[in-house]
């Protein structure tokens, strides 16, 4: 990439969208006439037809070269990096100022380290953890003043749903035991236990070892082997959960 043309490379990009006349947009002409009429009646303007401000095509910045340029200078003193960037850009022009405005979108200068965690210091409000999820972010190290790259935070993977349990309601579940599906019925664990509580799946249980289902302590009181129709239902619902 030609560094001395950075401002042109960042700004110049093909326009996105469709080339379409506003006359072909359904209801667009009527909407503009209505806006003109309302504004005229309110005395906001002299009678003339409002022209559409938003065309069907629009400009978008191409910021990949800027991110790559910053990434190539990671580990260098920020003052030197910024000075080099200002030398390559003509900050007296609109293009140069435009690029610099995007630099502050990527580089966080006001950072504080608390218990080993990076925090950005906003102009107001509470400190926020300095994180990067989907794009490159940089920061100026508060102690070394070097340009650093924020480590991207890994997205938490969705937990894999169990394939041997399927809830029916608060008191019933389908459970696969030794390859066989059963419909299991649960009862709420008694508040006061005089006799031992026997769970047909786990044996004798106490209040500490009882299962939690829907926020309640429960124990299995009965089970019945599933028929073919229930097994088809179970397989279909498990397949939907995995997608």
The overall pLDDT average reads: 77
Based on secondary structure, the structural category is alpha+beta
Uncertain runs: 39-60
Radius of gyration from the CA trace? 32 Å
Percent of residues in β-strands: 25-35%
Number of strands: 15
Which series of helices and strands comes N to C? HEHEHHHEEEEEEEEEEEEEH
Order of strands, widest sheet = 9-10-11-15-14
- Distance between termini? 43 Å
* Percent in helix: 25-40%
Overall, the morphology is elongated
Number of helices in the DSSP assignment = 6
Question: What oligomeric arrangement do these chains adopt?
Answer: single chain
Biggest beta-sheet profile:
5 strands, antiparallel
Explain what the structure shows.
The protein has 243 residues and is of the alpha+beta class. Helix content is 28%, strand content 25%. The strands form 5 sheets. The protein has a 5-stranded antiparallel sheet with strand order 9-10-11-15-14, covered by helices on one side. Strands 3-7-8 form a 3-stranded mixed sheet. Strands 4-5-6 form a 3-stranded antiparallel sheet, with no helix packed on it. A hairpin with a 6-residue loop joins strand 7 (138-140) and strand 8. The radius of gyration is 32 Å and the shape is elongated.
Protein traits:
243 residues; alpha+beta; five-stranded antiparallel beta sheet; 15 strands; elongated
Brief synopsis:
With 243 residues, this protein is an alpha+beta fold. It has a domain at 165-238. 28% of the residues lie in helices and 25% in strands.
Give me the secondary-structure topology.
Elements: H1 6-11, E1 16-17, H2 28-41, E2 57-58, H3 64-72, H4 78-88, H5 94-106, E3 107-108, E4 111-114, E5 117-120, E6 128-129, E7 138-140, E8 147-149, E9 165-169, E10 172-177, E11 180-188, E12 197-199, E13 203-205, E14 211-213, E15 216-225, H6 228-242
Parallel strand pairs: 3-7
Antiparallel strand pairs: 1-2, 4-5, 5-6, 7-8, 9-10, 10-11, 11-15, 12-13, 14-15
